Amino acid sequence: MFISNYFNTTIWSEQKPEFVKSLNKASNKYIKDARTREKKFIKEHGDFGRSYHSTPLTADNDFLDFRNYIGQKSWEYLDHQGFDMQQYTTMFSEMWVQEFAKKGGGHHSAHIHWNQHVSGFYFLKCSDKTSYPIFHEPRTGARATKLKMKPNQKGVWGGSELIHFKPTPGTLIIFPGFLEHEFSVDFGIEPFRFIHWNIQAVPKEMAKDV
Ligand SMILES: [Fe+2]
Asked: Are residues 26 and 96 in contact, defined by beta-carbon separation less than 8 angstroms?
């Protein structure tokens, strides 16, 4: 019997600890600036529940080696899935760093980034006591007709509707732009910081005019 798994959701992950030290250092000023922009709010209402987002990192040369690495990986990620990448150029739509509140409560509700082909995370500060990403089943039909799973399906919750991904500093995750994701509520026990990016594959004919 042939067993075929069509319509898979491909997620790539790997450990790339060599970027952690330099990117944490390069990110510090962005996080500090993001907190400064929110200074008035923090003073009046406290820091609970917030996440502090940087301005774009795509033009900062301190992130160049990393950007080249993840840009290449994202291209390979699409190529590996059989997409005809000779016809497309991959372009960063956005790349930014964020850190959750010191007092806890930082989180992101489930979302997708519209009109993107590849999304990714790179974790700079995290532990088993911090927030973590959760991916959602993207097939609405499958979501509506789930059955109970066998016990001990590691990382799978809610009848495989949710995948809990537990990163460590240096974990790189690349996933399809259509994949809904969220971040669990952080308790503010230890710092939680990561880089997030989105990439579009643009037809080369169109990219020539950009
Ligand atoms: Fe996101």
From this structure: no
Q: What is the CATH number of the domain that holds 195?
A: 2.60.120.620
Q: Which residues contact 95 (CB under 8 A, 6 or more apart)?
A: 56, 57, 58, 63, 67, 195, 196, 197, 198
**Ligand 1: centre distance to CA 94 (Å):** 11
Distance 183 CA to ligand 1 centre (A): 9
Ligand 1 centre distance from Cα of residue 194 (Å) = 11
Residue 6 within a domain = no
Q: Report the length, in residues, of the chain.
A: 210
pLDDT, one tens digit per residue, over 27-55 is 999 999 999 999 999 999 989 999 999 99
Domain that includes residue 111, residue range = 12-207
Is the pTM of the predicted complex or chain greater than 0.90? yes
Looking at residue 154, what is its pLDDT? 67
Say if 2 falls within a structural domain.
no
**Cα 2 to middle of ligand 1, angstroms:** 36
Q: For residues 151 and 61, what is the distance between their CA atoms, to the nearest angstrom?
A: 47
**What is the band of 181 on the pLDDT scale with cuts at 50, 70, 90?**
very high
CB of 10 closer than 8 Å to CB of 79: no
| Sheet with 108-111: strands ordered across | 108-111, 181-183, 133-136, 162-164, 156-157
